Amino acid sequence: MIDQAHTLTLNWEGPFAWPGFESVAGLPSLPQKPGVYLQTFEYQNGYLIYLAGITRRPVSARFKDHTRKYLNGEYNVLDIDAARRGVRKEVWHGWGYARAHREEFEARKPEILEAVHRQLAGFCIFVADVGTGPRVLERIEAAVMNHLYRQPPPFCDIPDKGMYLAPRRPSEDPIRAENVCRALLHGLPDFVEV
Question: What pLDDT, on the 0 to 100 scale, is given for residue 5?
Answer without folding.
Answer: 54
